[in-house]
Q: What sequence folds into this?
């Protein structure tokens, strides 16, 4: 990227979230002024307090479902990292309007603000769930047809489509990152968090959704952020699509056992049965990561190490 | 399909359009009561007047951008053919809100009405433009990644994604048809119509957008409707994705020459140059149609015959 763009502010939507706040820290560490947009529905402003006190982050509490007020945030920005979204896939099944508004329509509003402010680059956090239930593992970026199984997944694919259209119509450059399961500090959803919350309520038994054979790959948040930033530097297409994950699957059964082992005392593990944990769950996920590897990235933690670190971090956070 | 579903009303959104009205006729010919929803922005109610007089079609002028009033239309329906959309790809580039609202959000509203009324089947008219600029020809349904180049294409892909999510979450069955260029009576857009309109204004010269080497496949509307109805009967997946086109490309240059030849007098053809006709144009399109062929469908008219019939039909309509 040009040096003027390197010193221009970076906008991070969802920047008070578990991934966005780590990204904001890294951008600031590289000397970039950062503007965070977050509606604080799941984000926490405390995560940014050091950065805000240092004058490195300007925080705007805005709801991306409406376009009002976005202009000043995007004006003069060198790039937009669009990470804001409803973080819990399960919510959408009961109320499909959540992902439509907080996903698709929010992205449309961000992209309109990008167009009006002439921001040259947009980086978007998509998800492996756009593949639906793929029949090829590891699943490459070229896999199709894309048949999402949840409202969350539909909103991610719709957002990818909008970003691609904006790139081709208005000269923006785009990066689409299809995330594996990202784990790290402060994540208030996902299998590790759910299992630990259950043990907090009843330390003697652990209910596991599904038959425990669901198997996915897990990526530590720092590896995720490093991958995105490397791809921004090194990928040169108008629209760049990258899977971001690790090369190993960890079955849910093994995660449950790792959680129990971390306590060093006996716990009865009970499976609810069925192949998926919930409506819209994708029981098997393993992404092909050759494309991002070819740019020079590789994760420091493999899936098991990422899960173990997530267990110890989340235990600490929950006081367990 | 079950016999109760065969006698239940079929809803056709965009049913006053050039494709929807042909579909409505065929459904009525098979003894189905039809409910048409159309906002008449490009549809014409006259197309349905015979069917309405015969009591076969119930017409509702409704704007799908808002969910109001959809309930009674969808109540008790056996299936929904969702064809309503902004028909002109070029409009979206100047105003991205058109395809967002008339495409993606309209589809979301239709699907919510489907869910509330418990309609068992949804058939959706998508488009070859979801493939962006593919690198494989003929392009199979499994092609990826899908990188749309226009707001229209983004809305089609977003709508596919929503339909897929509804199918997997709520027990609906879905059909996604990715159309080649459909030609037929009453089409007020597309290359044949545009060229004839230009000749109407100036019979001595014909301006052609691009270098004339853009080459796409053309499908006559009756073949398109027959293909969709056959796939509904014979495809049994929860979500069924089919390309619908012909096996031949016709270059725009050849279409211009066929148009001129149809008049039998000299016309100067002038090319504006450049590989695409307009921002968001996909210069090369040829769909793999093996999947729908394997069900027993094949088009009666090949691309050239479809173009020739479109020329003579449109000339008659324009009084040329």
A:
């Amino acid at each position: 990227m040009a040096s003027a763009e390197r010193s221009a502010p970076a906008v991070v939507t969802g920047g008070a979230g578990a991934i966005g706040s780590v990204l904001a820290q890294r951008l600031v560490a590289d000397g970039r002024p950062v503007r965070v947009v977050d509606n604080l529905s799941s984000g926490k402003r405390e995560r940014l307090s050091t950065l805000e006190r240092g004058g490195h982050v300007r925080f705007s509490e805005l709801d991306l479902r409406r376009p009002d007020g976005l202009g000043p945030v995007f004006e003069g920005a060198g790039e937009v990292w669009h990470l804001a979204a409803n973080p819990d896939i399960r919510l959408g099944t009961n109320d499909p309007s959540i992902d439509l508004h907080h996903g698709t329509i929010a992205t449309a509003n961000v992209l309109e603000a990008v167009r009006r402010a002439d921001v040259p680059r947009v980086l978007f956090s998509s998800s492996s769930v756009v593949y639906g239930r793929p029949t090829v593992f590891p699943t490459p970026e070229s896999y199709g047809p894309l048949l999402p199984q949840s409202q969350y997944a539909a909103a991610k694919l719709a957002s990818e489509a909008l970003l691609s259209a904006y790139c081709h119509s208005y000269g923006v450059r785009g990066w689409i990152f299809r995330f594996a399961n990202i784990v790290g500090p402060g994540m208030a959803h996902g299998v590790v968090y759910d299992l630990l919350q259950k043990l907090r309520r009843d330390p003697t038994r652990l209910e596991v959704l599904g038959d425990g054979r669901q198997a996915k790959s897990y990526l530590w948040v720092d590896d995720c952020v490093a991958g995105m930033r490397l791809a921004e530097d090194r990928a040169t297409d108008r629209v760049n699509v990258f899977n971001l994950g690790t090369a190993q699957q960890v079955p849910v059964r093994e995660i449950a056992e790792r959680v129990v082992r971390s306590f060093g005392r006996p716990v009865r593990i009970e499976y609810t049965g069925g192949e998926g944990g919930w409506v819209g769950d994708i029981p098997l996920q393993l992404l092909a990561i050759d494309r991002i590897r070819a740019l020079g990235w590789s994760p420091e933690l493999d899936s098991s190490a990422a899960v173990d670190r997530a267990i110890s971090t989340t235990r600490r956070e929950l006081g367990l």
The longest strand of chain A covers residues 121-127. The mean pLDDT of chain A is 95. The longest helix of chain A spans residues 97-117. The domain at 185-217+248-284+300-318 of chain A is CATH 3.90.25.10 (UDP-galactose 4-epimerase; domain 1).
